[in-house]
């Protein structure tokens, strides 16, 4: 018996191994097309950019001269970069806080009104499907000195507050975050609404039996139960705040006088308008490091969820 | 309260509509918010002609129609391999692919530009295809791998015992069972492709290649004083995507929340 089994086992292992080998190559064949495209047009360019960021390349000439870390040192002395970083931080704070709060309030309000839900969802998510350039164009038009917002202020007797919102370097960046919130509120609302459906109703029932107030139920049941949704919204808002480009580009193009530059537009301006590809790419590397660092917990959570 | 908030949310588009159907004189006298004293479609005719939106719709439509099916098929094949075929290094590959959700396009634009220039694909609509595919894959793979993972292994095993190869399993079982997920991914991908700005801005320079966002940018630059013409042009540019949204929003909403809540 013992002998027979050793004789039997060996060919079985071999064939199992070769079967596994075959299965691996089939799996690889399915994966290869996507992996090749991803490696060639995302990973490779990203790594190549790191190399460019250590040069003084203009983006055109055939030679790249290595300048070590000087592009990165330059960033610390560049006053526009300082403005840009500050604007990205303002952007992050406003576009995290306002859409989260408004989205949460809307989700709570509409959760009990089943008949209104589809309508509210449609209206509030709608701006998010528009091209951001279109959103920028609309709000550019609303913010014009003789535009709708100033007309509205005059109409309600607040004419003294009229301003050239986008032409004034103290108000411009704040003005651009308003359309960003207009666009960004729909997603948290949808997520919160979906997550609210998942809270078992007996939590609330037993809380009510124990005499918990509306506020206590909100504070101790609703808000904590939505922690997964909070985390996703926070992560995506942070990533998007690092990536902001379209709205600023379409509305002020970084002006007036660089007051609304964000890291993305300042990178674009350096590479494609003043031919400092080396410096611009170094800015891109910094944006990427920020986006990746704030995004890693989100990516890890998603990777675990699909495993 | 909710209805007031909804009205407020819709008011930018309402102001746009009210202005677009007025004559410029009416707008000058009564402003954007007044009920129109006049009605005209001339603004739309002007906006259409000056904005060259016909060309832009054609270009955006073409790149979307080509990019989305290719992207979804590539992502579906990869997702099948990740979810059901025990691809070697599965964890590393999944993580690397999902990192693409956070990597900004800025980091890749300069090399992409030089790569495409070396093969003569700058200022061509087809130059957009490779970077659009690459940057679309992470999201598509996230949703599809998650969905494929929920298809019971028993169904697949049963087919394999009946002698089905993996390609048959993919096309006869995975694809039909995953049609809702595939549709959602395709729709979200189409919206993103239609709206993309940065890569198009960098690669395309001549007017006949402009996509919708580029046409809008250019249009905005030409209409600095004629608000009625401007608002009509903006409406023309955004109406197709609004119609798509109105018709397909069920898929959009389900796709956005499906993966996210359980993560």
CATH topology of the domain at 59-211 and 241-262 in chain B: MetI-like fold
CATH class of chain A: Mainly Alpha
Molecular shape of chain A: flat
Q: What share of the residues of chain B does DSSP label as strand, in percent?
A: under 5%
N/C terminus separation of chain B? 32 Å
The number of helical segments of chain A is 14
Count of all domains of chain A: 1
Top CATH class of the domain at 59-211 and 241-262 in chain B: Mainly Alpha
Q: What order do the helices and strands of chain B follow?
A: HHHHHHHHHHHHH
For the record, what is the CATH homologous superfamily label of chain A? Answer: MetI-like
Proportion of beta-strand residues of chain A? under 5%
CATH topology of chain A: MetI-like fold
User: Could you report the average pLDDT of chain B, rounded to the nearest whole number?
Assistant: 89
Helix content of chain A: over 70%
Q: Main sheet of chain B, how many strands, which sense, barrel?
A: none
What radius of gyration of chain A results from the CA coordinates?
27 Å
If classified by CATH, what would the architecture of the domain at 59-211 and 241-262 in chain B be? Answer: Orthogonal Bundle
- What's the name of the CATH homologous superfamily of the domain at 59-211 and 241-262 in chain B? MetI-like
Give structural notes.
The complex is a heterodimer of chains A (307) and B (263). Chain A has one domain (70-306): Orthogonal Bundle (MetI-like fold). Chain A is flat and about 75 Å long. In chain A, helix 3 runs parallel beside helix 7, helix 4 (117-125) packs antiparallel against helix 8 and helix 11 (227-243) packs antiparallel against helix 14 (277-306). The model of chain A is unreliable at 1-11 (pLDDT under 50). Chain A has helices spanning 2-52, 70-77, 79-111, 117-125, 132-143, 148-155, 172-184, 186-197, 201-209, 214-225, 227-243, 246-251, 263-273, 277-306. Chain A is built from 14 helices and no strands. Chain B has 263 residues and is mainly alpha-helical. Chain B has a domain at 59-211 and 241-262: Orthogonal Bundle (MetI-like fold). Chain B is built from 13 helices and no strands. In chain B, helix 4 crosses helix 7, helix 4 (53-84) packs antiparallel against helix 12 (212-222) and helix 7 packs antiparallel against helix 10. The two termini of chain B are 32 Å apart. Chains A and B meet through helix 1, helix 3, helix 4, helix 5 and helix 6 of A and helix 1, helix 4, helix 5, helix 6 and helix 7 of B.
């Amino acid at each position: 018996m013992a002998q027979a089994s050793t004789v039997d086992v060996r060919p079985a292992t071999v064939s199992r191994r070769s079967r596994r080998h075959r299965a691996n190559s089939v799996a690889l064949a399915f994966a290869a097309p996507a992996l090749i495209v991803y490696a060639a047009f995302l990973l490779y360019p990203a790594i190549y950019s790191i190399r460019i960021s250590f040069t003084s390349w203009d983006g055109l000439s055939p030679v790249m001269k290595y300048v070590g870390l000087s592009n990165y040192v330059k960033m610390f002395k560049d006053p526009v970069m300082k403005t840009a970083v500050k604007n990205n931080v303002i952007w992050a704070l406003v576009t995290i806080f306002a859409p989260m709060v408004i989205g949460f309030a809307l989700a709570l309000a509409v959760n009990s009104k089943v008949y209104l839900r589809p309508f509210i969802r449609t209206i509030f998510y709608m701006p998010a499907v528009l091209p951001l350039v279109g959103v920028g164009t609309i709000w550019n038009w609303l913010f014009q000195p003789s535009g709708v917002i100033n007309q509205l202020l005059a109409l309600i007797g607040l004419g003294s507050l009229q301003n050239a919102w986008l032409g004034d370097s103290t108000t411009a960046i704040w003005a651009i975050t308003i359309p960003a919130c207009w666009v960004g509120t729909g997603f948290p609302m949808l997520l919160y609404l979906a997550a609210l459906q998942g809270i078992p109703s007996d939590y609330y029932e037993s809380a009510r039996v124990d005499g918990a107030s509306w506020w206590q139920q909100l504070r101790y049941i609703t808000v904590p139960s939505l922690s997964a949704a909070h985390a996703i919204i926070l992560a995506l808002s942070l990533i998007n705040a690092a990536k902001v480009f379209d709205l600023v580009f379409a509305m002020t193009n970084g002006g007036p006088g660089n007051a609304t530059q964000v890291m993305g537009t300042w990178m674009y301006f350096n590479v494609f308008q003043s031919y400092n590809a080396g410096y611009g790419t170094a800015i891109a590397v910094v944006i990427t490091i920020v986006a990746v660092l704030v995004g890693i917990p989100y990516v890890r959570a998603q990777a675990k969820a699909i495993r | 309260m909710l209805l007031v908030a909804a009205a407020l949310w819709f008011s930018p588009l309402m102001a746009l509509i009210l202005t677009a159907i007025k004559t410029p004189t009416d707008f000058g006298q009564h402003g954007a918010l007044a009920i129109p004293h006049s009605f005209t479609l001339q603004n739309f005719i002007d906006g259409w002609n000056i904005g060259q939106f016909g060309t832009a719709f054609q270009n955006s439509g073409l790149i979307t129609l080509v990019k989305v099916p290719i992207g979804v098929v590539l992502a579906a094949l990869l997702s099948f391999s990740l979810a059901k075929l025990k691809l070697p290094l599965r964890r590393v590959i999944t993580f690397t692919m999902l990192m693409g959700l956070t990597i900004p396009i800025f980091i890749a634009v300069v090399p992409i530009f030089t790569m495409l220039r070396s093969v003569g694909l700058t200022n061509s609509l087809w130059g957009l295809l490779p970077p659009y595919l690459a940057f679309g894959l992470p999201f598509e793979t996230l949703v599809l791998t998650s969905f494929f993972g929920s298809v019971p292994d028993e169904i697949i095993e049963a087919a394999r015992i009946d002698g089905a190869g993996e390609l048959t399993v993919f096309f006869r079982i995975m694809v039909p069972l995953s049609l809702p997920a595939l549709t959602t991914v395709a729709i979200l991908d189409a919206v993103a492709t239609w709206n993309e700005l940065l890569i198009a801005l960098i690669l395309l320079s001549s007017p006949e290649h402009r996509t919708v966002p580029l046409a809008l940018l250019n249009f905005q630059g030409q209409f600095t004083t004629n608000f009625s013409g401007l608002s009509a042009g903006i409406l023309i540019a955004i109406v197709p995507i609004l119609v798509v949204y109105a018709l397909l929003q069920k898929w959009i909403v389900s796709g956005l929340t499906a993966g996210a809540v359980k993560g």
